[in-house]
């Protein structure tokens, strides 16, 4: 029997049902695991053992009374430190919110509470979700559990690393341009960005409002399906949340779901410069694997792919420059102690509170919206965004899903790209299109490099068809035979 | 050379809704600091706005009343600027696709003698859009405090064209806005409570020129009469500057109420760069023909139309209609009264505009104030508006109508009517029982009155002679004793008639 | 690429209310210039007749009914306040009433 902390949600839930384990024991196991590996991984910004144990005991009481709330009841779930839970810290990995405690609980977190989940820890990330390496956290650098000299990816690097290292059963992250899928790929776990509008953003500290989505990290597709099911659904507090029925994703997973399906492989993705040869080979063999279980492979074209990076970095930074204006030293954030007047208070509090990447993006976003540049940058980017969306709409007229790499490379070394923001931005090439088009995307492990670093396969589905996408990923996962591989920590 | 002023107003009006514009929290005036907020108002990390449908409806309603074009699609934009009263440091507003475009506001200018109807004209509107209000700063000697109760209240911004030329026009414009908007139930427009605030743009140029002069701005004016005085002052000041060759600079000035002068507040240091962009958190709104038809069916009659109708249909004098027709409460009081007794609208209107309003104001108001109820409401801090006083008033429209009828039927005299009215106002009783209780019923018994007349004539031959000699007023000396003998109840009209007959 | 993109870093930093150190100023100018050069790709696309996308999905008419719920207590609202007095936020004196 594998260690408790590497068991799946279904396994843990079954063990609680059969009274072989209590939530208190499970939670304790994750706490112990966290304590034993955190000095190597640094996935957590903070955690609160007492409140986790209390939640676990409450779960045990419910189960004892036969009042189990869901399969997640009693399961320790890690939260990216960008999600609002009343009474818990919410730092966004920023000095700006170093001492901030959330006065309210966001909708998806409320749903998780109502499902009985035990919140375990606040997970590290790039500051305000800006970054692809987790190196932009103001507090610590999370390490990749497969090689602790390397980055875990970002921005939800803490969530990916914690799940990979068995520090929590599953975790929530957020994905604006690949912030779930890319670290999932680099840490060898499953990570999914749902269709824009499927999961409420109320309670997710905004980076780029028209791109952000909350999504699950898990060690298998089924666990991701269980967690997504718990947090998906319409929310009247989020105007961008969509009214769609939420099917029971976990029960709809089929091993043969890829049979007879058409997989589109975008030509442009494989022509992109900077793709690592091992990644290419691994993804190509993953696609072959799909073919071997009945899928048909067709080449497609997404002609505006090379414009996605400029569009994304204009739209995302413009929105961010405005979204992050509220962190100003006035009401609840860090306040500079050496300001000479109220205007100076803004300048100094923001200079002291924000890290370099956040400042850079706010400056860029402010610039593209400023008088004289709006039309050339922001408005034009919005129009090209329409073209990018159109690429996918046309593609999905003839295919059922699209397969591509998640990241052009495996995890790179800590510090390797930190001084070259453009190189870092170009790394997002395969993931940001999906955010711009508002589509669901999932990254699943598809192989390892010679150095033993995980490689992820990205599957992109039709809007609001998460049930099908999860099922395709499940079919691949079964066929790949990579389940149950864990880093050696 | 002759000069003319060019004036445009931007007026902010808080909408009377149950909840704020983008979140379900109550708003009202005068609550303890920061007791009407929630996470959305504070802009905590992760909160999102959802628009209040009623605020959209109410804004469209006002737009329709002013003849604006209502576009098919409207959207919300972020106006980015940093200020401590703005929790997000962007204001949710509307930039290039507002709810209402064009239109105009009918105003009435004061007439030469003040008692006739003045000239009417239409002030052109540019647009009306919907945005959120900001919090409130209170300044102390060494710091400032911020209260966010006001933040997020739905605020309609009505932007006029630079289409006014005097303080009187601006004054009339503000009063017209107030009466139309309050008639529509969209806002109480109480400037004292900050429910209506005006920004004034004013410049002066040689008459006939089509180039605008240097623009001076005055912000957050909270009384129409201040707006009038300050514009009049600014026009004089700016013309003086031009005549004396003193250059005018584009600046924001403030009105010093005590000194009656405007003073420089700040000159424009930098052009604003608000970086407007469509709010990604809010979806655009399509305004259907169906919704427009629905709102159209709810539109009230606008005050000037009502005034014209009262004058033509009821034959009311201008003076009475000008008091009645800018106050929805008085109008409905009047119309309710007519439902009980419709034969004398003029008498009914007079009773409301003279006696009723005088009684309502008698305790707390000077004569000057009662001539301009809008000003009096806005300038006296503690006094509630007469709307609320009318609601508390014990005189019902039905009873007021009955009193008019008692007079018309000759049951009581004018003099008695005043006494009965005073009693109605203090006790709330109906006029008939007051007349009965006090024995005020007018004496119209011809036989008895004739006896009183004969007796009076027998005692004053001199008056009879004078009357016969052509002094018509002399008859009063004879009528007085009759009234006295009847205990004040004699029907004066009958007495006069009998007396004239007896004298021959 | 023809002309190097430049950004008026002081103006933009002022709009964004961020005080930059001289080093940051230098570094950001260079980096952002490079990024803007990369953005030049966009100007080569024909976008005539293309509607801009302000949202990931085009949805209209999302609103709520006009109902009020309970406000939060001021103590909760102000629990993270850097400086407070009488249930209000304290800020250095604001002179300019913009």
Write the topology of this structure:
The complex is a heterotrimer of chains A (489), B (504) and C (98).
Chain A: H1 9-17, H2 23-41, E1 44-46, H3 49-64, E2 76-80, H4 107-114, E3 118-123, H5 157-164, E4 170-175, H6 181-187, E5 190-193, E6 213-218, H7 221-231, E7 262-266, H8 267-271, H9 277-292, E8 296-300, H10 308-323, H11 342-353, H12 356-369, H13 375-398, E9 401-405, H14 421-426, H15 432-437, E10 441-448, E11 454-460, H16 466-480
Parallel strand pairs in A: 2-3, 2-4, 7-8, 7-9
Antiparallel strand pairs in A: 1-3, 4-6, 5-6, 5-10, 9-11, 10-11
Helix pairs in contact in A: 2-3, 5-6, 7-16, 10-12, 10-13
Chain B: E1 3-14, H1 39-42, E2 51-52, H2 53-65, E3 73-74, E4 77-80, E5 90-93, E6 100-101, E7 104-108, E8 120-132, E9 136-139, E10 143-147, E11 154-160, H3 167-183, E12 196-206, E13 216-221, H4 224-243, E14 251-256, E15 261-267, E16 277-278, E17 285-286, H5 289-297, H6 303-314, H7 318-324, H8 328-340, H9 345-362, H10 367-370, H11 373-379, H12 386-392, H13 397-408, H14 414-427, H15 431-438, H16 446-458, H17 461-468, H18 476-485, H19 492-503
Parallel strand pairs in B: 13-14
Antiparallel strand pairs in B: 1-11, 1-12, 3-17, 4-5, 4-16, 6-8, 7-8, 8-11, 9-10, 12-13, 14-15
Chain C: H1 9-15, H2 22-39, E1 63-64, H3 74-77, E2 84-85, E3 88-92
Antiparallel strand pairs in C: 2-3
Looking at this protein, list some descriptive labels.
heterotrimer, B: 504 residues, alpha+beta, Arc Repressor Mutant, subunit A, nine-stranded mixed beta sheet, three-stranded antiparallel beta sheet, 41% helix, 19% strand, C: 98 residues, Histone, subunit A, two-stranded antiparallel sheet, 3 helices, 9% strand, flat
């Amino acid at each position: 029997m594998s260690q408790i902390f590497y068991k799946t949600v279904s396994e843990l839930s079954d063990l609680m049902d059969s009274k072989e384990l209590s939530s208190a024991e499970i939670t304790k196991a994750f706490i112990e695991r966290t304590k034993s590996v955190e000095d190597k991984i640094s996935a957590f910004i903070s955690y609160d053992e007492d409140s986790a144990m209390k939640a676990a005991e409450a779960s045990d009481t419910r189960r004892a009374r036969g009042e189990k709330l869901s399969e997640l009841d009693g399961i320790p779930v890690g939260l990216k430190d960008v999600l609002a839970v009343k009474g818990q810290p919410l730092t966004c990995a920023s000095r700006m919110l170093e001492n901030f405690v959330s006065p309210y609980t966001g909708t998806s977190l409320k749903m998780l509470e109502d499902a009985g989940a035990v919140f375990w820890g606040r997970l590290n990330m790039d500051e305000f979700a800006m970054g692809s390496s987790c190196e932009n956290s103001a507090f610590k650098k999370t390490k990749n559990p497969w090689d602790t000299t390397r980055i875990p990816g970002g921005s939800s690097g803490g969530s990916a690393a914690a799940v990979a290292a068995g520090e929590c059963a599953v975790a929530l992250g957020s994905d604006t341009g690949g912030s779930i899928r890319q670290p999932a790929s680099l840490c060898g776990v499953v990570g999914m960005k749902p269709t824009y509008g499927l999961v409420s953003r109320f309670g997710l500290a905004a980076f780029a409002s028209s791109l952000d989505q909350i999504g699950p990290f898990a060690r298998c597709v089924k666990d991701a399906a269980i967690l997504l099911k718990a947090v998906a659904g319409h929310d009247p507090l989020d105007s961008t949340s969509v009214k769609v029925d939420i099917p029971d994703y976990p029960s709809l997973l089929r091993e043969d779901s890829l049979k007879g399906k058409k997989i589109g492989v975008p030509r442009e993705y494989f022509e992109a410069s900077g793709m690592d040869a091992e990644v290419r080979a691994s993804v190509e063999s993953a696609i072959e694997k799909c073919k071997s279980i009945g899928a048909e492979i067709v080449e497609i074209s997404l002609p505006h792919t090379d414009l996605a990076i400029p569009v994304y970095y204009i739209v995302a930074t413009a929105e961010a420059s405005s979204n992050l204006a509220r962190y100003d030293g006035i009401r609840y954030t860090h306040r500079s102690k050496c300001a000479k007047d109220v205007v100076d208070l803004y300048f100094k509090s923001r200079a002291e509170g924000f890290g370099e990447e956040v400042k850079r993006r706010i400056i860029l976003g402010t610039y593209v919206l400023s008088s004289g540049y709006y039309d050339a940058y922001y408005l034009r980017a919005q129009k090209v965004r329409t073209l990018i969306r159109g690429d996918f709409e046309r593609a999905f007229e003839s295919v059922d899903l699209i397969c591509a790499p998640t990241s052009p490379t495996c995890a790179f070394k800590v510090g390797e790209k930190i001084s070259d923001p453009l190189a870092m931005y170009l790394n997002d090439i395969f993931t940001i299109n999906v955010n711009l088009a508002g589509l669901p995307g999932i990254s699943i492990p598809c192989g390892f490099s010679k150095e033993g670093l995980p490689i992820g396969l990205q599957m992109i589905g039709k809007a609001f068809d998460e049930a099908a996408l999860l099922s395709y990923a499940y079919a691949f996962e079964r066929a790949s035979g990579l389940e149950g591989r864990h880093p050696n920590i | 050379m002759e000069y003319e002023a060019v004036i445009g107003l931007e007026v902010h009006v808080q909408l009377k809704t149950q909840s704020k514009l983008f979140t379900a929290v109550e708003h009202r005036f005068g609550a303890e600091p920061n007791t009407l907020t929630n996470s959305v108002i504070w802009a905590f990390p992760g909160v999102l706005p959802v628009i209040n449908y009623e605020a959209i409806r109410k804004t469209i309603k006002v737009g329709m009343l002013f003849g604006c074009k209502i576009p098919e699609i409207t959207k919300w934009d972020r106006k980015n600027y940093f200020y401590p009263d703005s929790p997000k440091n962007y204001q949710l507003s509307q930039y290039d696709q507002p709810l209402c475009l064009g239109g105009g506001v009918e105003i009435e200018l004061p007439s030469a003698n003040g008692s006739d109807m003045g000239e009417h004209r239409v002030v052109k509107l540019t647009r009306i859009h919907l945005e959120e209000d900001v919090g409130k700063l209170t300044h102390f000697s060494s710091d400032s405090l911020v209260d966010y109760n006001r933040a997020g209240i739905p605020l309609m911004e009505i932007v006029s064209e630079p289409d006014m030329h005097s303080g009187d026009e601006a004054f009339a414009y503000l009063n017209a806005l107030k009466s139309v908007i309050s008639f529509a139930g969209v806002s109480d427009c109480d400037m004292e409570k900050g429910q209506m605030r005006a920004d004034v743009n004013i410049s002066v140029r040689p008459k006939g020129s089509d180039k605008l002069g240097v623009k001076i701005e005055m912000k957050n004016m909270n009384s129409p009469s201040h707006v009038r005085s300050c514009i009049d002052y600014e026009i004089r000041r700016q013309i003086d500057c031009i005549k004396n060759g003193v250059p005018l600079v584009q600046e924001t000035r403030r009105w010093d109420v005590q000194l009656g002068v405007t003073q420089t507040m700040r000159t424009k240091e930098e052009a604003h760069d608000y970086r407007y962009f469509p709010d990604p958190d809010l979806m655009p709104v399509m305004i259907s023909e169906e919704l427009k038809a629905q709102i159209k069916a709810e539109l009230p009659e606008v005050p000037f139309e009502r005034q014209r109708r009262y004058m033509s249909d009821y034959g009311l004098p201008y003076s009475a209609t000008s008091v009645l027709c800018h106050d929805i409460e008085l109008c409905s009081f009047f119309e309710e009264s007519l439902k009980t007794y419709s034969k004398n609208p003029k008498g009914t209107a007079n009773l409301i505009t003279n006696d009723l309003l005088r009684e309502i104001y008698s305790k707390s108001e000077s004569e000057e104030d009662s001539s301009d109820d809008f000003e009096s409401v806005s300038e006296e801090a503690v006094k509630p508006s007469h709307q609320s006083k009318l609601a508390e008033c014990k005189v019902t429209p039905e009873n007021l109508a009955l009193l008019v009828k008692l007079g018309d039927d000759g049951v009581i005299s004018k003099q008695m009517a005043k006494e009965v009215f005073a009693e109605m106002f203090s006790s709330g009783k109906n006029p008939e029982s007051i007349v009965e209780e006090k024995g005020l019923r007018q004496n119209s018994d011809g036989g008895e009155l004739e006896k009183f007349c004969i007796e009076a004539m027998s005692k004053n031959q001199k008056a009879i002679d004078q009357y016969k000699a052509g002094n018509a007023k002399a008859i009063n000396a004879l009528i007085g004793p009759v009234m006295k003998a009847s205990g004040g109840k004699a029907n004066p009209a009958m007495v006069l008639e009998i007396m004239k007959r007896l004298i021959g | 690429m023809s002309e190097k993109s430049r950004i008026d870093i002081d103006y933009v930093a002022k709009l964004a209310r961020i005080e930059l150190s001289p080093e940051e100023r230098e570094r950001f100018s260079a980096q952002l210039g490079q990024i803007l050069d990369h953005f030049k790709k966009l100007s080569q696309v024909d976008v005539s007749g293309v509607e801009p996308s302000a949202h990931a999905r085009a949805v209209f008419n999302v609103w709520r009914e006009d109902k009020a719920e309970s406000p939060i207590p001021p103590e909760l609202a102000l629990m993270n306040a850097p400086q407070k007095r009488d249930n209000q936020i304290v800020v250095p004196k604001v002179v300019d009433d913009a």
